[in-house]
Amino acid sequence: MNKGEGQAAAWNADTQLDGNSLLYLEEMYERYLQEPASIPASWQHYFDALPQVNGQERDTRHSLVKDYFRAYAAKPQAYAAPAANSGVDLEHERKQVKVLQLINAYRFQGHFHAQTNPLEENAPAFVKELTLAYHSLSEADLGTTFNTGSLFSRDQMTLRDIITQLEQTYCAHIGVQYMHTTNTEQKRWIQQRLETVRSTATYSNEQKLEILDRLIAAEGLERYLHTNYVGQKRFSLEGGESLIPMLNGLIQHAGALGTQEMVIGMAHRGRLNVLVNVLGKAPGLLFGEFEGKYSYSGRTGDVKYHMGYASDMMTPGGPLHVAMAFNPSHLEIVGPVVEGAVRARQDRWPEGGDDKIVPVVLHGDAAFAGQGVNMEMLQMADTRGYRTAGTVHIVINNQVGFTTSAAADARSTFYCTDIAKMVDSPVFHVNGDDPEAVLLVTQVAMDYRATFKKDVVIDLVCYRRHGHNEADEPSATQPVMYRKIRAMPTTRERYAQQLIAAGVISAEEAQARVQRCRQQLTEGAPTVPHLLEKGQVENPHPVNWKRFVGGKWDMPTDTTIDAATVRNLGEKLTIYPEGFKLNSRVARIVADRKKMAAGEQLMDWGFCENLAYASLIEEGYPVRLSGEDCGRGTFFHRHAVFHEQETGETYVPLQHLSPAQKPFVVIDSLLSEEAVLGFEYGYATTEANTLTIWEAQFGDFANCAQVVIDQFISSGEQKWGLLCGLVMLLPHGFEGQGPEHSSARLERYLQLCAQDNMQVCVPSTPAQAFHMLRRQMVRDYRTPLIVMTPKSLLRHPLAVNSMEDITERGFQNVIDEIDAIDPLKVTRLVMCSGKVYYDLLEQRRKAGLEHVAIVRVEQLYPFPEADMNAMLDRYPNVAVNVWCQEEPLNQGAWLSIQPSLRTVLGGTARLDVSSRPASASPAVGSAKVHAAQQQELVDNALGITMS
Question: Where are the transmembrane segments (predicted)?
């Protein structure tokens, strides 16, 4: 393509360019000079066709010229004034710019050249941008003195010394990616920390011996378990032993910075080692678990490598509480749970919580790149409702995922950590066989988090000495890798030899330390330095969970409030600043709420829900409500947040009830279910006295968070003894809107129910929702609450309540017939839940059926057997009992509730079901077919003969 063709192609690609496009063109040209392939081919051809500088090379990037002059402005004394018309000086100045370009290249791409992989320690690397020739320099220039620009060094050095410093800083055992970040201050901070010490740690002999002891402990535990518990899974840390001095160093350094609590989340690999050699769990307790000595008092318990733990450590800054979260085998899902637990802890502090509580999340390399929850979790990092002021992420990079090759199949990115670049996080790659380098980047990463309150990632590049588990044979799928691993000394052996060679320790003393470690393991006592005894440290913000232990779901609970409180709080819910212009529809809703508060109008769903929150806040219970669009409410009912129509500013009445009120937080979340629900679970398991609610935009959207529901919400108490009062609001109801916006999959939650692990409710009136939400907090009982919330009932003319329903009656597990029907005349009893009740009621009234009673089961689990028996006693002449549901026969409540219904009805009682036919899909896509099905199941339930 000639010059004219290139210009034409570029012009055709951007026909909208005009005189205002200068910045766009400048940016395009800069990108071309840095990396031609990063711009469209048409522009590449255009710039390729431009005249060459000196007829043989590309132009110099303008940003580098700017860097040169900035450096001159900062250090003018370092620049000699060029002689007039001196060709030599002009050539030197041209090369000076090229040297600055080379420095920049190392900062951008030095990590590609870094020796961070223990399995390829001496492998040659070639990065053309790091060669002299690429920058029009040669070996003849190595002895020439140049200004060092923004490099943290002497003002002037020879090119040879400049390259030596750059190689040591960016291409040794630490490789850092940070130039992609957009904040100049953060980039200069990292440059200052690494370039001033050339990425080389300086530790005392005492510190080096402590590192050695931690490596000995890490290796010693694995070998002890391998010898004494042959064939048992433990998901060994061998190959990544540097994680132990890394985490110990992180705890000590965080404590020195003022951290008082640290929450750690990790999957199973290396977990047992971390429990013993970081958190101080007594080896004897672990060995007892291997030997099956412990029971779980009626709970199922869990495998050893899923268990959590907590301990207190003494640090240079004082005691630090360290908690490791429980987690299942679903790899990365514990990350957002940890973030939620940390946010709950931070919220307890009146101020300074960001600095006091630090989250640390450990990842596997294949999982960090492959699991979508990580993208969701990272995307939460700086959002209003989920921010935790920076997480230290540590990737235990084994360079293989079970049997999947990292390079070929595990990801499409160069690094497993590239996802972190999405949120501007710097990434420190470090060789796991160099524990001193590991400790250095750990300290830098913790300081970065403390300084900038941002996420930071450490890529601990190591390997897996055994297979996925100890019974696995890794060489079957990675023969070359494991041939190399079998020939390698361990990290402990390497480091011991390094210290012996440096005269820090003798070979005999190094071996004696190994023997002492073995003896300590045999004794089974904790071996972690700095460990404090349980109860020695007082928590400044304690939470009393003991009062909920042994609580019963049906304990007597008064959830009513008096009429004066209704009027007072209801009025406050309608107040907003003077001159604050509301949307016209919202203004009408607020006006109606004024009447409801005064008792002049029946109460609707939105009013009762907000009233429940207000009453709890005034009684000392904070409320946290999050989910997609929950400020307004997906179905335009909540309006907890008012929006000024001219300025866009917001006002939240629930935050202005009284000066001493507890907080009300409502968050329109990022478009995530899995990570956000995991976050709220973590929050709810940490904070007992806050009503923590997650609302799905549509109930079926919770499908995207099924792992949180299955592995945490429904089973966390049974597996780990963790109590949790999380509420899930799931809009549910067949409105003719098709398969994806009908069902919250009620059947799935009921299938997960056993041992009183959850509550599943389907409130059919606003007052029921009011009492249900209050009941969740005011009784001494904490179990997850799953709620099938309505859509059309939010504005249904019959789904309203009077003042007395709030002030005189609490939550009713079962609601009996409301019409004046003689119980002795009832021969047909229809039982149901949710919206279908109103269809049944209207059709029964229309048909004038006085022998049919309709009963609502508002709590499906735990099944309210006593309430049902009391209700059934009123109808001695029933011949036919019917369970009616909108859902298909194989879905909804029928299959789960049927045994409980038969128990209360008695073995000989007739029990029929009226529902949609069994279906692979939740609902039909045709509104007309939907209406016909609904009419049929209602008539069938009522015993109306079809004509």
Answer: none
CB atoms under 10 Å from CB of 608, counted, come to 25
State how far the Cα of 721 lies from the Cα of 326, in Å rounded to an integer.
10
CA atoms within 13 A on the CB side of 857: 27
**Other beta carbons within 10 Å of 525:** 10
Q: How far apart are CA 767 and CA 232, in angstroms?
A: 54
* Neighbour-count burial for 817-853, b at 16+ CB within 10 Å, e otherwise: beeebebeebebbbbbbbbbbbbbbebbeeeebeebb
The CB density around residue 709, as the number of other CB atoms within 10 Å, is: 23
Q: 3-state DSSP helix/strand/coil percent for the chain, to nearest 5?
A: 45, 15, 40
Q: Give the end-to-end CA distance of the chain in Å, rounded to a whole number.
A: 80
Full-model pTM = 0.89
- Model pLDDT for residues 895-941, shown as the tens digit of each residue: 999 999 999 999 889 999 999 999 999 999 999 999 999 999 999 99
- Of 270, 250, 208, nearest to 397 by C-alpha is 270
Which helix or strand (DSSP H or E) is residue 322 part of? strand 318-324
Which DSSP state fits 709? I
Q: Indicate if 833 and 775 belong to the same structural domain.
A: no
DSSP 647: T
In a domain, 552, yes or no: no
CATH of the domain at 450: 3.40.50.970
Q: Quick one: three-class SS letters along 177-196?
A: ECCCCCCHHHHHHHHHHHHC
Helix (H, G, I), strand (E, B), or coil: what is residue 786? strand
Query: Of 245, 242, 322, which Cα lies nearest the Cα of 280?
Result: 322
| Co-location of 488 and 570 in the same domain | no
- Whether residues 433 and 451 share a domain: the answer is yes
Query: If 0-12 CB within 10 Å is exposed, 13-18 middle and 19+ buried, where does residue 449 land?
Result: buried
**Cβ atoms of residues 687 and 746 within 8 Å:** no
- Does residue 274 lie within any of the structural domains? yes
Q: Is residue 598 part of a domain?
A: yes
- Look up tokens 């700017």; give the residue: 66
E-only strand ranges, 462-577: 531-532
Sequence letter at residue 133: A
Lowest mean pLDDT among 291-295, 379-383, 938-942: 291-295
Sign of the alpha-carbon dihedral angle for 413, 414, 420, 422? negative
Residues 6+ apart with CB under 8 A from 927: 736
- Farthest CA pair distance, the chain: 116
CA 466 – CA 469 distance, rounded (Å): 7
639-688 tens-digit pLDDT: 999 999 999 999 999 999 999 999 999 999 999 999 999 999 999 999 99
Among 424, 431, 348, 367, which Cα is nearest to 390's? 424
Task: Provide the residue type at 411 as one letter.
Answer: R
Alpha helices in 349-431 (DSSP H): 353-356, 365-370, 372-379
The dihedrals phi and psi of 281, each to the nearest 5 degrees, come to -60, 135
Do 460 and 368 fall into the same domain? Answer: yes
Distance in angstroms (rounded) separating the CA atoms of residues 720 and 715: 8
Number of domains in the chain: 5
Please enumerate in sequence order all residues whose Cβ is within 8 A of that of 159, keeping only pairs 6 or more positions apart, or say none: 99, 137, 141, 142, 143, 144, 146
- Are 623 and 725 contacting, i.e. CB atoms less than 8 angstroms apart? no
The single residue listed with the structure tokens 């019409």 is 819
Copy the structure tokens of residue 799: 């789904």
The answer on pLDDT for 699 being more than 60 is yes
Torsion from C-alpha of 825, 828, 832, 838, nearest 10 degrees: -60
**C-alpha to C-alpha distance for 95 and 142, rounded to whole angstroms:** 11
Beta strand pairing status for 727-731 and 785-789? parallel
Could you tell me which of 603, 592, 590 has the C-alpha nearest to residue 768? 603
**What does the alpha-carbon distance between residue 518 and residue 927 come to, in Å, rounded to a whole number?**
72
Burial of 384 (0-12, 13-18, 19+ CB in 10 A): exposed
Structural domain of residue 881, as residue ranges?
Answer: 814-942
